[in-house]
Amino acid sequence: MKACDLCFAASTWPGNASPPESAPATCDFGHGYSNHTRPTTAWVDSLSRLLSIYEAAPAGSGELLEVRIQEDWSLFTLGPESVKQFLSSVFADGHELLAEGVTVRLRAQAGEPTSDHITSWANFADEIRHKNRYFPQAAPDNDLLGRVLLETRVQIDTDTDLFRARVIEGPSLGSGEMGAPPPEHATAGRANPVGIPHLYLAFTLETCVYETRVANHAHIAVGRFRAARDLHVLNLADIDPPDFFSVDEIESISDQIAQVSIHRYLKALGAELRKPVRVSDQPTEYIPTQYLCEFAKSLGIDGVLYPSSLDASGRNLVLFDVAAAVCIEEPRVVEITALRAEWREIAT
C-alpha cells in the first residue's frame, strides 16, 4: 500500500525514517493522487521501535493499538480503521499486537508493576481520593514530573488583558472587590483546596461571561486585569504529544514510556480542570487536580492555563498567588440578553 504526506500528523516522522524517494501515485488512504507517495513498508523500522514500548494487556483491559498510539503520539491524520489498515500493511507477516481482539498497555519495566497501572490517572485519582491522601503510591515520579511541567511553561506578559466577572444584584463592585475571595470564604475548586484562594481569570470577555453560568437578564460586573509581573504558567490548553521520531534511537524504552506517561497525566489534568464546578460535586472530586496544582506551585510555577468547558475556543487561567494580577480599571456592568444552548445525546 502507498501513503502520501497528508497521512501523517507527526511532521518529523517521514523525514527521520529516511524513506525511499517518493513517487507519483494514488494514496491508498483516501487522499487521492499525489506526487509524493511511498510504500507503507518504508516505515517498518520506525514502527517496530515504536511498538516495542507496548505489550498485550490482560483480557478486559487496555485499548486497541490503533487507538492507543494515536492518543499517545498523534502520528496520523487517519481514523482508527485506516490506522489499523496502515499498520497491518506495514507488518504484512503479522504482529502480535495487531491480532484480532488484542488490546495493549505500556510495557512494564523490570521490578515494577505494569506501567499503565503506575501511570494511570484513574488509579492515581482513586487512591488520592479514597486511600492515601498525602503520600499516594500511584503518583508519578516527582523528578520526572517536575522536569516535564517546567518544560511546559508559557509566559503571560504584563500587557495581556485578562477578565474576571462576578454576578451582582445591586450596585456595581469596585475594582478592589473583583479579586479572589479571602481565605475564610474560599471554597474548594478544581485547582485550589478549601481555605486557599486562587485567582480564576479568562482571556476574553466572552469566555469570562460564559464561565459565570448565569441566567438570562442577570447583571454581571466584569473587571479587566493585568499581570503584576511576567508570569510563567503551565499550559494545559495546548498539550503537544511527545515526538517519538525526533529523539535519538539510543534513548531507552523506559524514558519513552515515561514521556507517554507524563503526557497522559497532563492531558488528564487539563481535562479535569476543564470540567465545570457543579453544586452536586463532592469536595473530594477536586483532590487529584489540587494535588498536582500544588506540586506545580512548589516548582515556582505561577498558575495553569487550561481550556474552558463553557466556551469551546476559550482559555482560562488560574493563578496561585491572588496578587499576581490586578484589576486595572473600574468594572463594567453587563446584562445577559440571550443564552445559547447546545447539547449532545448520552448513553443511559
How would you describe the overall organization of this protein?
The structure is a single chain. With 348 residues, the protein is of the alpha+beta class. The chain folds into 2 domains: 2-106, no CATH class; 148-335, no CATH class. It is 29% helix and 20% strand. The protein is built from 10 helices and 14 strands. The chain has helices at 12-16, 44-51, 65-73, 80-90, 115-119, 121-130, 142-151, 205-212, 253-274, 287-298, and strands at residues 2-4, 23-27, 32-39, 54-56, 104-106, 153-156, 162-168, 199-202, 219-227, 231-235, 303-307, 315-319, 325-327, 332-335. A 5-stranded mixed beta sheet has the order 6-10-11-12-8. A hairpin with a 4-residue loop joins strand 2 (23-27) and strand 3 (32-39). Helix 3 crosses helix 4. The two termini are 41 Å apart. 35% of the residues are buried.
